Amino acid sequence: MKRRSFNLALPALLLGAGRTMAQPAGWVALFNGRDLEGFDPVGNANWRIEDGALVADRGNGFLVTRANYANFEFRTEVWVDTSTNSGIFIRATDPATINAANAYEVNLWDERPVQRFGTGAIVDVAPVDPMPRAGGRWNTMEITARGDSFTVVLNGQKTVDGARDGKHATGRIALQHGDGIANAAGVVNDRGVVRFRKVELRVL
């Protein structure tokens, strides 16, 4: 009886140790659906919570995670107007000044003047052709960053497939509501709504 009891207990002990010490991390919610906990606002975008979603429709700015991430899978649901300049910046190396030079910008902007780096592209790294459109509906976006390799999937369609770039190894993740296109008078359009919900990440 002693021997049988010991043999049954040992696998359970090892399983428990595996869960604590060896099992890869699962999906973690970066947004709790209630407030901006876990993010630092940067810029003047008017971020707020509406119906369980992060929403902005005016200003130029970001919601920036408080932790750095290197290798990960990221996924979210996002709603944008066709005119909205938005995106998800990953591996941002300067959390106080987010841009496409110090981060990778996964774009969400149907009316971007240079369409090859519009919706679904990684700006200046991985173009799209033809550019998919996200405006006027809820979309699912998935981003995988592993070493110098990047994949982007929008609504089940791969828009970036294993693009390679090694400039930024780790950094913050930032959700954007940005300036749009200037009109004939030179006035920049900063309007157009963006909504994010189910913002999740899994460390690889």
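[next item in queue]
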Amino acid sequence: DGTFVYGEAGDYDTKRGEGFLLNRSYLIKDMRKIVGDSLYSNKETGISEAYGSVVLTDDENLCMLTGGFCSYNQNTGEAVATDRAVAYEYSQKDTLYVHGDTLKMFSYNMDTDSAYHDMHAYHKVRAYRVDIQAVCDSMVVHELDSCTYMYGQPILWNEKQQIFGEEIRIYNNDSTIDWAHIINQAMTIEKIDSMAYNQVSSKEMFSYFKEGEIVRNEAKGNVYVDYYVNDDDGSPLIKNYSESTELKLFMENKKVHHIWMPATRGTAYPVFA
């Protein structure tokens, strides 16, 4: 069936298609390869399990799983990695790294032109890419709708911007972040210097990106704002505290350019009065 199994030591039953191999054995099927210090393979069930410094590569979808243990079902396309598990997605110019206690990948409509994949990560999830970093308790990546769902105290970083809430949904365009929806107890923080931060909190928030950088934030419902007006050298000069029902914050060159709010009440005072 096109499956290639290699091992330098171990047992293999050619009649049943079942084997347990040692010494960095590997299995190749189509454009997928699984390697481990030891390898179990069952041709009838399509399940392969690898132990010790495991690497599962998918050259067709340009992704990879590593961990201390990994299993893969050739029939369903489901993969599971645990024990220092890391997923790599390198279909774009910048690789996305995702770490969690357990990582699962699911394949749908295999061997068709409409094939797509999902990834589930839990717990203690960490994600990194040059333009964006994130932490949360669990994460679900749906390739079909290009959306990533983050649950359990999610936090998202982009340059000097930090965003968090009860739930964060990230929508991508060609694997690059397009916009994010922060749901319930939403808050964004921008670092000015070691002592000053621009802060916005609201019931929900929408963050829009261009080429990996935040260009606009929109906050809706119970909006609270701490915003600094800087002098010519960029040092905080005046602090504004405001309350409103809605806010639109516009960014230029990675800094706050201007803020729009409807009817507002608040206070402004010198920073070092």
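[queue empty]
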